[in-house]
Amino acid sequence: MKTVSKNIHAVHTLLAGLALAVLIAPGVASAADPQLEKAIEQGRELFSHATFDGNGHVCESCHLAGGASPGKLPNGKAIPSLANAAAIFPRFRAKDNKVIVLADQVRSCIAGGLGGNPPAYGSEQLNSIISYLTSLSEGKPIEMGGQPR
Length: 149
Prior knowledge:
Distance between the termini: 50 Å
Number of strands: 4
Radius of gyration: 20 Å
Structural class: mainly alpha
Number of helices: 5
Low-confidence stretches: 3-29
Largest sheet: 2 strands, antiparallel
Strand order of the largest sheet: 1-2
CATH architecture of the largest domain: Orthogonal Bundle
CATH topology of the largest domain: Cytochrome Bc1 Complex, Chain D, domain 2
CATH class of the largest domain: Mainly Alpha
Strand content: 5-15%
Shape: globular
Order of helices and strands: HHHEEEEHH
Mean pLDDT: 84
Helix content: 40-55%
């Protein structure tokens, strides 16, 4: 009888866990709005394939696994992942002596790292890249000025 009771308890615990997962997962798994999902996917495509008329590299040339894993610069220097990039902006950039936002960082990386023509502020391309990077940070605590992880 003890075994049956333990099994029933285990099934109840499993069902309760599954019910909780169903309630929580929709907000974590995807954006609620199909247009936002489209922007995220466009950003992912740009991140992986767009050279922005630069040196032939793409964002993913340095930011590996779509930015979700640590990467490497062409000189071999290790760089952190972009998993919390949207959660650490705005931040102070000492070399420019000013506060920057994520869009500034993306444009700077495209101009410098890719030698390309960065998308204009407010453009669909830039908004899509920002949407994609923000999706990587979903669920991460806001830590303005924090360190990339």
